[in-house]
Amino acid sequence: MLFSSLIFLFGFLPIILLFSLIGSNRVQNLILLLGSLFFYAWGGVSFTAILIFSILINFLIGLQISKNLDTPKAKYWLTFGVMINLGILGFFKYANFFVENINPLLESLKIGGMSLRKVVLPLGISFFTFQAISYLVDVYRKTVPVQRHFEKLALYIAFFPQLIAGPIVRYETLAQQLDHRQRRLEDFAIGVERFIIGLAKKVLIANNVAMVGDKIFGFSSDTLTTDLAWLGILCYSLQIYFDFSGYSDMAIGLGRMFGFRIPENFNFPYAANSIRDFWRRWHISLSTWFRDYLYIPLGGSRGSEYRTYFNLFVVFLLTGFWHGASWTFIIWGLFHGFFLIIERIGFDKILKKIGPFSHVYTLLVVIIGWVFFRIDNLEKSFEYCHALFSFNGFNEEYSIKQLDKHFFTVFSLGVLFSVPCYKYVKAKWSFFQKDFTLLKSFGLTLLLVLCMLYIAADSYNPFIYFRF
Questions:
Q1: What pLDDT sits at residue 61?
Q2: Active-site pick, 180, 283, 323, 406
Q3: In the annotation, is 323 catalytic?
Q4: How many domains does the structure of the chain reveal?
Q5: Is residue 10 part of a domain?
Q6: Are 466 and 47 in contact (CB under 8 A)?
Q7: How many whole angstroms separate alpha carbon 442 and alpha carbon 428?
Q8: Has residue 465 been placed in a domain?
Q9: Considering only Cβ atoms within 10 Å of each terminal Cβ, which end of the chain, N or C, has fewer?
Q10: 322 with 360, same domain?
């Protein structure tokens, strides 16, 4: 069930908002939990069984870790818990990938290939397994107390606003809010505002640029010209940002409506002046998860320079692999890791000296990286990169001239709002600040109406991160 679907906006959301007003926090937690499980079951009842099993096993293992703290058994239980979570994730997300890659090797050795029925990827499994792992590790580290109420841990893992595509929320962020939260009208209004902004990002910008981008990515390599290659990857760059950040905005807004404060996940990543800065701004909850639960335990930057480079290599290898079972995701992760390493070696000093050109460098690296993220075939990815720099003229059948004013308006707005122009204008222009509340209310109402019209009239409503 997409947040940008009519069934969610006019069916599920009003009902769950109404029922969640009933009773104490505990009653509200139970209602939200049941609603979240129903929301998840909408995408597949069998997937819900996997989610419930994950919640139950992590609840029981968390209790065992807490019971055996300060003894070797605690570490054994933590290791077991992490292996269970990674085993669930590994089977459903990577089993097909490993079989497809191992079979050619086995056949070349005349051993015979492995057979495996196509494994369907459960929605949001990459996100809720990472949340579960962080909970177990934090209990082991004594960062948080163990949760002894099953329904509270279940709500933390299954809370529907961030269940499908994040942000990846730490247990310590929601622990107090599960027991003590106040639902104020002011918070609800802020939540509605944030949700509408996220919905507009998704429906008005991401969906519209995606139609053009998807068409271009469907071209064969022999018909793909440089102008269209750049247009296609720029459309995808806007699509993935407004699609994913829009979803995060909607998740944060929904959380606020129910009295929860979900942390930020994006901070204008396309305004970054280095790849290191980009990862401080892009998918913040994932990058901080890898930092705290992998990079630092590996040694972080505390050892030798070579050890630090190795740690970065491992982190971004796994970052790429986390996103999907494909060699192109691995290439994408290592591509970013390579530039992070050369920046750490000393290239960051050069970036500080070249001023605005550091932004150009960052955007170029990120945009080229998106090619491997978008295309799941390694050969086709390199062919697309070749088209970007081949300067081979114009495609006569489908040229930029054929695109209408509507597309260019949306594309221009996408470029404009991918950088923090809104904050700049609000801070600098006094007339914009005057009667701002009234102006903002009018603007949000207009955005909501436009979104409803688009959703009602158009069935093209893809969501990139359902793949992960």
A1: 96
A2: 323
A3: yes
A4: 2
A5: no
A6: no
A7: 21
A8: no
A9: N
A10: yes
> Which structure tokens are listed for 335?
């591509």
CA 330 – CA 361 distance, rounded (Å): 22
| Helix/strand/coil (H/E/C) assignment for every residue in the chain | CCCCCHHHHHHHHHHHHHHCCCCCHHHHHHHHHHHHHHHHHCCCHHHHHHHHHHHHHHHHHHHHHHHCCCCHHHHHHHHHHHHHHHHHHHHHHHHHHHHHHHHHHHHHCCCCCCCCCCCCCCCCHHHHHHHHHHHHHHHHCCCCCCCCCHHHHHHHHHCHHHHCCCCCCCHHHHHHHHHCCCCCHHHHHHHHHHHHHHHHHHHHHHHHHHHHHHHHHCCCCCCCCHHHHHHHHHHHHHHHHHHHHHHHHHHHHHHHHCCCCCCCCCCCHHHCCCHHHHHHHCCHHHHHHHHHHHHHHHCCCCCCHHHHHHHHHHHHHHHHHHHCCCHHHHHHHHHHHHHHHHHHHHHHHHHHHCCCHHHHHHHHHHHHHHHHHHCCCHHHHHHHHHHHCCCCCCCCCCCHHHCCHHHHHHHHHHHHHCCCHHHHHHHHCHHHHCCHHHHHHHHHHHHHHHHHHHHHHCCCCCCHHHHC
* Range of the structural domain that residue 93 is part of: 22-182
Among residues 161, 145, 149, the alpha carbon closest in space to that of 55 is found at: 149
Same-domain status, 281 and 369: yes
Shared domain for 269 and 147, answered yes or no, is no
Looking at residue 364, what is its pLDDT?
96
Q: Same domain for 321 and 385?
A: yes
Segment 61-81, tens digit of pLDDT: 999 999 999 899 999 999 999
Give yes or no: residues 336 and 414 share one domain.
yes
Q: Are residues 197 and 258 in the same domain?
A: yes
Place of tokens 């050109």: 357
How high is the pLDDT of residue 297? 93
Final residue of a structural domain among 148, 164, 182: 182
| Pairwise CA distance, residues 325 & 180, whole Å | 40
pLDDT of 112 reads: 66
Query: What six digits make up the tokens of 195?
Result: 């949700």
Quick: pLDDT tens for 332-348. 999 999 999 999 998 88
- Cβ(317)–Cβ(330) under 8 Å? yes
Identify whether residues 383 and 402 lie together within a single domain: yes
Predicted local confidence at residue 219, as pLDDT: 86
Give the Cβ contact number of residue 185 at 10 Å. 7
Out of 148, 182, 216, a domain closes at: 182
What is the CB neighbour count within 10 angstroms for residue 466? 14
So what's the pLDDT on residue 135? 96
> Which parts of the chain have pLDDT scores under 50?
none
